[in-house]
Amino acid sequence: MNPSLIAIALVVAGWSIFANGLQRWHLTAPIVLVLAGVAVGLTTRSALASTLNTEVAQRVAEFILAMLLFLDATEVRGGFLGRDARSAVRLLFIALPLSVAFSVLIGRWLLPGLSWAVLVVIASAAAPIDFASAPSILRDERIPERVRSLLKVEGGYGDGILSPVFICALAIAVGQPHRQMAIDALRMAVPPVIEALLVGAVIGGALALLTNAAERRDAMTEQSKRLLIIAAPILSYGVSVGIGGNGFISAFVCGIVMNTLRRSETFRQQLASADDIGFVLAAVMWFVFGCATVMAFANGIPWRIAAFALLALTVVRLAPILLSTTSSHLAWRDRLAIGCLGPRGTPSIVFGLLAFNVLDGEPADSTILAVVIVVLGSLVMHGAGSLAIARLYPQPENQETESESARRPRRY
């Protein structure tokens, strides 16, 4: 049996047994898995790069991202864009594009040897937030519910919105070395995205409406409802890839449509099985990330890439959020909290591994190194980030430390 699979299973089992105590020390499952991956990576450094540079590895990474994007899309509550739709629009469609644009401009300054397309790939991988590595942020009731709700919306939709940008930029970056015009590469990348959007919407809508009708007729069991949720992202991914579309974008759209159309009060409970599967898949990616960290650091850390990663975690996120929420109803504390609480995680890892698999030479090495530094920096900065941000708010006495939103297990 593959030693890596045994190592992942042992780490997950050990963390599960001592989860309460480890979480009090802010040792989440991703952190423990990264450390285990680093330990294994030190002994398998030479074989790792060739393993990641295979079509099988690419498909596995795409499928894992598809499942996680589906789960992210189902996390949003209170309507399509949550309870505060105006602020969500500002974050997703103003702040997020500005963050990518700022990253590209800074990358052009610090990493002049990389093309615009590669810089967009790196920026798209570094921008999406994910709370797998810092679950305490969403559980900390000292941070107002309005802030945590907006962060959930951004975390749920951000990586899916950036996926088409990432795919198109990656197609252009790959096409340039083969003397293919950027516009031709873009034409090749756009149709799969459109096909994925249509497939995801049709499958998600059909499954949601059929499930609603079946529930009214009491035609389903509780187990069958849970199994259907697991089958939905697999079906949308498989159909989309089968017709030449993008599988993980399709799964993301499928999740959005199902989350919008499903009207069952027990829908959240039915997602529990899919969440557990998502946890295991994310655990694999965190372990691989730990192994990839050893490979990425093998030739040292150029100060330019380190500076880029530091700016991506701080100014590049905070400034666009402050700009996009100017004149909004959000208080300055809320705007500052949203800008400071932006942990990176599984989406960045998968984007980075996909880019490493597709690109060659310096672009591939620079991309994986930038992503590794961004995610590691986020583990350090945001692991206990809510503790500092919570001090911005006046604290009522005898407040609970756990909220109901934390009771549903996610990829922690």
Summarize the structure in short.
The protein is mostly helical and 412 residues long. 74% of the residues lie in helices and 0% in strands. The protein has a single domain, classed as Up-down Bundle (Na+/H+ antiporter like fold).
Explain what you see.
- Residues 398-409 have low confidence and may be disordered.
- The chain is built from 20 helices and no strands.
- It is mainly α and 412 residues long.
State the separation between the terminal residues, measured CA to CA. 26 Å
- Helix amount, in percent? over 70%
Q: What is the overall number of helices?
A: 20
Quaternary class: single chain
* Low-confidence region ranges: 398-409
Q: Any idea what the radius of gyration is?
A: 20 Å
Q: How large a portion of the residues is in β-strands, by DSSP E?
A: under 5%
User: How many separate domains make up the residues?
Assistant: 1
- The pLDDT mean sits at 84
Shape: globular
* Count of DSSP strands: 0
Please give the CATH architecture: Up-down Bundle
Can you write the helix and strand succession as a string? Answer: HHHHHHHHHHHHHHHHHHHH
Q: Would you state the CATH class?
A: Mainly Alpha
Question: Could you outline the blueprint of secondary structure elements for this entry?
Answer:
Layout: H1 3-17, H2 19-24, H3 29-41, H4 45-52, H5 55-75, H6 85-110, H7 116-126, H8 136-139, H9 145-175, H10 182-216, H11 222-242, H12 247-261, H13 267-270, H14 272-296, H15 303-313, H16 315-324, H17 332-340, H18 346-358, H19 361-382, H20 385-390
Helix pairs in contact: 1-3, 3-14, 4-14, 5-9, 5-12, 5-14, 5-18, 6-7, 6-9, 6-15, 6-16, 7-9, 7-18, 7-19, 9-10, 9-12, 9-17, 9-18, 10-11, 10-12, 11-12, 11-14, 14-19, 15-16, 15-19, 16-17, 18-19
